[in-house]
Amino acid sequence: MRMESGRTVLIIPGLGNSGPEHWQSLWESSHPEYQRVLQSDWDSPRCADWVANLDAAISGADRPVVLVAHSMGCMAVIHWAATTRNPDERVVAALLVSPPDVEAETIPTGPTGFAPCPLIRLPFKSIAVASTNDPFVTLERAKIFTGAWGSELMVLESAGHINAASGHGPWPEGERLLAKLLK
C-alpha cells in the first residue's frame, strides 16, 4: 500500500469494478502497493455504502492518502469529502477521472443516493480528467463540477469514458498526472 513517495494510493473504481484491461487494474498490477477500495455491490450501489467503505480504507492507511477514482468512484470521493470530518487531514490529493453527471438521464439505473452531486470545494488538491465525448457527462457539466471542487481540469479530446472500452489500457498520460499529484 505504500509508495516511495510516502503516500498510500487507493484505487476507487466505478460501476462494475474496473475490469482486467482497465487502466486502474493495470496500474494496480504494476504497483502492488496500490490498494483497491472494495465494494459489496458494484452494479446497484448505495452511495452511503460506498462512502463508508472508502472511509474505512482511508482510515486504515498509515500514510497520507492519494485517491485515484474513476466514474462513479469519483462521486464516492466527492460525497466522502462532503460528509467526512476533517478530510484534509487524511487525504492529500485526488485524481478524478471521468466524473459522471449523476443527475443526467444517461446514468445507468442501479446506483442510489449519488444525486445530486455535491458542489463543494475539496480541501485537498485534485486533478479532474474529462473527455469531450464522455457519454455520462457533458464537458459543460464537467467544467461546473470541477470548478466547484477547485480541481485542475484536464480535457481529453474524444476520449470517451476514459476506460478500456474507449481504448485506454495502461494510460501512461494518467500515470503522469498521478505522478504530478504525488510530488
Question: What's the arrangement of secondary structure elements?
Answer:
Layout: E1 8-12, H1 23-30, E2 35-36, H2 47-59, E3 65-70, H3 72-83, E4 91-97, E5 125-131, H4 139-149, E6 152-156, H5 172-182
Parallel strand pairs: 1-2, 1-3, 3-4, 4-5, 5-6
Helix pairs in contact: 2-3
Give your account of this protein's structure:
With 183 residues, the chain is of the alpha/beta class. The chain has a six-stranded parallel beta sheet, with helices on both faces. The two termini are 17 Å apart. The longest helix has 13 residues, at 47-59. The chain has five helices and six strands.
The oligomeric state of the chains shown is single chain
The major beta sheet can be summarized as:
6 strands, parallel
The level-1 CATH class: Alpha Beta
What's the helix-strand series? EHEHEHEEHEH
Query: What's the total helix number?
Result: 5
The residue-averaged pLDDT reads 94
**Using DSSP, what is the number of strands?**
6
Task: Report the portion of residues in β strands.
Answer: 15-25%
Q: Point out poorly predicted stretches.
A: none
Beginning-to-end CA distance, first to last residue: 17 Å
The CATH architecture comes to: 3-Layer(aba) Sandwich
Shape: globular
Q: CATH fold name, please?
A: Rossmann fold
* CATH superfamily grouping: Alpha/Beta hydrolase fold, catalytic domain
